[in-house]
């Protein structure tokens, strides 16, 4: 329920609410992802499909506009600031690795052009 309200939730938060370990939560959730549990698990966070779609659109838009080699962490920081402005003080936080994995998937499917060098620039 909280996942649907906030679009993301930390596994540690779920574990604390249920008074069980995060590892147990992970073991319970992983086999159910895509079936009973609709979401994407990454970096200890569970995201709704709608939220993943929104972030994917942001990453696609930001990276399609790049015309010179650019440091990707600076792009991810800009996107993070936009998310915080959109959601206010209680804004959601997204790990840079989540942005990076979405970007790599967009590269593989040809949705954006470019290449990653040293894992940090395009």
From TrEMBL:
A Gene Ontology annotation in the biological process aspect, one of them, is: protein K69-linked ufmylation
UniProt domain E3 UFM1-protein ligase 1-like N-terminal: residue ranges: 1-120
Task: Report the InterPro entries cross-referenced here.
Answer: Ufl1, Ufl1_N
Cross-referenced Pfam families? E3_UFM1_ligase
PANTHER family linked to this entry = E3 UFM1-PROTEIN LIGASE 1 (PTHR31057)
Query: What Gene Ontology terms describe what this protein does at the molecular function level?
Result: UFM1 ligase activity
Q: Which organism does this sequence originate in? A: Aegilops tauschii subsp. strangulata (Goatgrass)
Q: What is this protein called?
A: E3 UFM1-protein ligase 1-like N-terminal domain-containing protein
Q: Which domain of life is it from?
A: Eukaryota
Identify one Gene Ontology CC term for this UniProt entry.
Answer: endoplasmic reticulum membrane
